[in-house]
Structures are given as C-alpha cells and as structure tokens.
Amino acid sequence: MVKCGSKVYASTDIDVDAADNCCEDNGGDIYMICAGIDYSCDRTWAGKHPLDTRPAWEMRQDLGRRCSANVYPIFNQQSTIDGVTSMIEQVGAKVGPDDWFIFYYTGHGDQLADDDNEEADGKDSAFCLLGPDRNTEPRQEVWLRDDDFAKAITENVTRDAKILVLADCCHSGTIMDLNRPCWDEGDFRALSISGCTDKQTSAGTGKGGMFSRALTRAIQDCCQELEEGYSVGEVYNRTLQKYQEYKQPGHTQSITINCSGGLMPKDLKLPLAPDEGYVTKANTTLRGINVTK
C-alpha cells in the first residue's frame, strides 16, 4: 500500500523511490535517544524471561556512537512518560537547524481507546511504558500515546531540524501521528520507520526484534556498498529485503515508513553511516541466531 497526499506519504511493505541524486545533506549534528524496556521489573508483562530488547538497544547505541552521534540511553525504570518526555525536552533543546533528532524505541507497543476523537479507527497507538512503581498498569495513565509523543517532539525540537523515529514494537505503524496539525503547522521534516502496522504485532528473536535485526543488516549493506552515502528510502528498501530473508515462519509484520508534509523517503540522506568496525561488531552480535531463510 502506498499513499501520497498533500500532508503525509506512507508506504507499507513496498519499495519506495530511493534515488539519492537529489538527497538533501546539510550536515548537522546527530542527537539520538535510545529508549528500551525489557519489563524485567514487571513480571506480569515479562513472564518467565525479560523481553529480548537489550541486544538491539545496545546495538543502536553503538551505531550512534560510531556515527559521532550524541547518544542518550534510557532503559526500564527510566522509561516512564515523565522520563521519556523529559529526555525529549532535554535533547530537543540542544538540537539546532539542520541537526538530526533521532528517537529509537524497542519494547512493547499496543493500542488504547482514542481519547480525543481524532483517530479514524478510534484507537491511539502507544508505547507501553512503565509507571513510577515500575509497572505497566494502569495503562491509561502510564502508556505514552501517539498524539502525546507527537506533541512532545513538536514542542521541543526546532522545526528546522530533521526528525527520524525508529519504532520496534507492536501496533506502531502511525506512532508519530503525522496527520496531526502540529506537524503540518510547524512544516517539520519528519520520518518514521516502524516494525509493523497499527494492527500487527512485531516478533522477537531472542536477541532483539525482527525489525531491529533487519534494520541492522540493511545499514551494514549500505555502508559497505554505498560509499557516497544513502537515503532513508534506500535503508527502508533494504530493511524490507532483510526481513523477508530472515523472517520467522508463521508470523508476518509489514514494515512501514511515513513522511511528513511533502517529504519523500529519497529526500534526506541518512546520517547513520558507520565505519567498518560497526559492521564487524554487528556481524558478531547477529551470528548464531536461529533464523529461517
């Protein structure tokens, strides 16, 4: 499915135009928040074992540092509504024109009944965060809704920055809620890549989510093969390919990309272009995972 309107471009499981000859590359610093939860502090959600988020969370931090990004990690008990939104406010204050603001999340995602009658399906996508007592309930109070997430970013990150959200969680297709007026009014350059649609679940592997693994492999390929850099669209296309190569039998998740008003996936060059050392470490981390080709 591909849609292209005056406000939001979206593609799900279909290659996008990734031509990089018109890629915008104005440099700028990279500010990257890496948020993760394994729910080891909430046995109701963790079950017998914590969620397998830590390997991907650590890999994303390593990726950022190898790209000279300013990395801000938060994990488990720090991942409350106040913790996440305060971090967005703190980091957003540092972001200047043409800088990159990147937000990565790995954990549970779900849906809540829409509380402002703005969602066509009557549901808000949400990050399943923790409360002050380290529990995920009551969900109506401790989960971060998509509209509140969008508000936190648009109120704290300059409109002249470039914004990218990477969401490895269930029900995350529209987690940025780019149809909200706050994005259009600010004329933001914002994109998101999510591990699945709003109606789907995202699979884990024991060493990170399927989406995070596919994204890691895609970036490895790009940095080895494309010396002049690569667009966000190129990374998205290769992430689709890697997911298909390594997907688990019996489970399907449709990786989704969304772009704000008039922006296209080919328009921005992804700043995450690591050195060979990252490729080596990524291969070591991913080696030994049971996959079905």
Structural description of this entry:
With 293 residues, the protein is α/β, with parallel strands linked by helices. The protein has a single domain (27-281), classed as Rossmann fold. It has helices at 43-46, 54-66, 81-92, 139-142, 146-156, 181-186, 210-225, 232-246, 276-286, and strands at 2-4, 9-12, 30-36, 70-75, 100-106, 109-113, 123-127, 144-145, 162-168, 189-194, 256-259. An 8-stranded mixed beta sheet has the order 1-2-11-10-9-5-3-4, sandwiched between helices. A 3-stranded antiparallel beta sheet has the order 6-7-8. Strand 1 (2-4) and strand 2 form a beta hairpin. Helix 2 runs antiparallel to helix 9 (276-286), helix 7 packs across helix 8 and helix 7 runs antiparallel to helix 9 (276-286). The longest helix is centred in the last third of the chain and has 16 residues, at 210-225. The radius of gyration is 17 Å and the shape is globular. The two termini are 25 Å apart. Residues 1-5 and 288-293 have low confidence and may be disordered. It comes from Margalefidinium polykrikoides. Residues 83-244 form the Peptidase C14 caspase domain. One of its GO terms (biological process) is proteolysis. Belongs to the peptidase C14B family.
